[in-house]
Write a structure and sequence with these properties.
This protein has 224 residues and is of the alpha+beta class. It has nine helices and five strands; from the N terminus they run H-H-H-H-H-H-H-E-E-H-E-H-E-E. The protein has a five-stranded mixed β-sheet with strand order 2-1-3-4-5, sandwiched between helices. A hairpin with a 5-residue loop joins strand 1 (123-129) and strand 2 (135-143).
Length: 224
């Protein structure tokens, strides 16, 4: 059955949440509407508006470890949608959990960097901090091969300078082998520490991470 003219006009005057979000940005939708955008559609029996509300209820009431199982208990949510929602939640946690976290020891920042140890190529990461050593941002400055990444102070410090950061902690992963530093790691750390000093930024540490452990230049007395 074709929609009536009245229905068509009504639709035109009530833009979808997708259209409204494209127009107004991601801060516009509610939490439930963000879930609607993620799901795309509901099931044959349950509309997406109802599914999104049920998912929000689960997100508000369960732990991270039980999230997927709880989501799969919702009628209309299969394994694929449960995984999609859980993956989005985990991605958001990884991207934002560090914000304004206070770093007192090298071990304090490792949980916010640990997921980079899962990468198959070397990632060089720079964490910028304010004067109270609260994390402002964590970003990937360079991606290399399985055992090497090329870095330059210009790329490392561009964002911290723009953010008016007072301090930085650099980090890179070792996809293969132990987390002890190579001579190249030691040389690059010295160059970065000198560059930071010229810029008036405190170079707090260089941390190497693997799936099992981490190595801190500061804890091992390797910073000038």
């Amino acid at each position: 059955m074709e929609p009536s003219k009245k229905q068509v006009l009504s639709h035109k005057h009530h833009p979808s949440i997708r259209e409204l979000t494209l127009k107004n940005g991601l801060s516009f939708p509610s939490d439930a509407e963000l879930v609607m955008l993620l799901l795309g559609s509901g099931s044959a029996d349950v509309p997406v508006t109802v599914l999104s509300q049920k998912i929000i209820s689960v997100l508000n009431s369960c732990s991270r470890d039980e999230l997927i199982d709880r989501l799969r208990e919702i009628k209309g949510i299969g394994s694929s949608k449960a995984l999609a929602v859980a993956a989005a939640v985990e991605l958001g946690r990884r991207r934002s959990a560090h914000f304004m976290a206070r770093i007192n020891t090298p071990g304090d920042i490792v949980p916010y960097l640990r997921h980079f140890a899962l990468e198959s190529r070397e990632h060089f990461i720079c964490a910028s901090m304010n004067g109270a050593h609260e994390v402002l941002n964590i970003r990937v400055a360079s991606i290399g091969t399985t055992n090497r990444t090329l870095i330059h102070p210009r790329e490392i410090f561009a964002e911290p300078v723009a953010e008016h950061a007072s301090a930085v902690i650099c980090c890179h992963n070792h996809p293969s082998g132990p987390c002890e530093p190579s001579q190249a790691d030691k040389d690059s750390t010295r160059v970065l520490q000198e560059a930071a000093g010229i810029l008036g930024i405190t170079f707090l540490d260089h941390i190497i991470i693997t799936r099992e452990s981490y190595f801190s230049f500061l804890e091992h007395g390797l910073l000038a």
